[in-house]
Amino acid sequence: MLNRPDIIRTVTELRAMVSTWRRDGQSIALVPTMGALHDGHLSLMRLAATQADRVVASIFVNPAQFGPGEDFERYPRTEAEDVAKLATVGVDAAFVPHVREMYPEGFATRVHIERLGDVLCGAHRPGHFDGMALIVVKLLTSALPDVAIFGEKDYQQLQIIRRFTADLNIPVRIMGAPIEREADGLALSSRNRYLSPEQRQTAVALSVALRMVRDAVRSGDDPAAASAKAREDILQAGFDAVDYVEVRDPWSLELVTEPGRPARVFGAARLGSTRLIDNWAIE
Ligand code: PAF
Hints:
CATH class of the largest domain: Alpha Beta
Radius of gyration: 19 Å
Order of helices and strands: EHEHEHEHHHEHEHHEEE
Bound molecules: pantoate
C-alpha cells in the first residue's frame, strides 16, 4: 500500500515531528537530496528504511552549492513526481523547505572544509563543498537523525560529510550507499536528464574509461599513466572536456602514485553544458 509522506516546509514542524517519534522510542534516518529523484535516490530511501524506524527525505535545491554559471536555475524541480516516488519506498516525511526557510534574511554563516575540499571537484567548482557542507550541517542539526545516508557517486562529498560531522561533533552515523548504474554502466544522476539521446550514448564512456583505470591499476599499472590514457579515451569518445581523472586514497583523498594498495579512481568530464562525475573502488 502506498503511504504518501507528510510534506514539511519548516524546521519547526520538522523538529516537532521528530520529537514525537523520539518520544515513542523510534529511530530516524535522513536522506538529503536535491530532488529530481531517480532509482539511485530510491535505493538510498530503501536502505534508510532498513536502518531506522522512520525515514525523512529532504528535497532542497541548495543555491549555496552552485557557482556562477552553473545549473542552479535549470536544475530540475519536480516536487510532485518526487513525492509520489517517495510514497513507493516507505518514506514517512518529505522536508521540502523554501530557500528563505534555510537562508533567512541576515544569514551570514559559512562552513569551510580544508584539504578534502580542495581537490577533485573542489578544485573545479570553487565554493561548492562549502555550500554543500553548510546545508548538510543545517539539515542534520534540524532533523537530528540517528543515521544519514549519501550515495557513493558523490564519494568526495561523502568523505567531506564524514569529516565535518566528526569535527563538529554532530551525533549522527553517516552511511554511504553503492552507486546505482544503468545497464550499460552509466552512473545514475539527476543531471543525466540534460543529455540528448546522442550525448547519452557518449556519456557511458566516462564509466568505461574509469573502469579500465581500475582494472589496469589492479593488475599493477602506474595510476598516473592509466589516468592519462583514460583522459584521452574520454575525449576520443566525444566528451568536450575532462576536468580530471585521478586515482586517490579512499579516505584522505591524497593522490595514489603506486599500484597495490586500496584506492579509488575518480573522474569528471563535460558533455556540452552537462558535467558528469563517476568513480570506482580499486580494492
Ligand atoms: O548530493 C546532493 O544531492 C546534495 O549535494 C546534498 C547532499 C543533498 C546537499 O544539497
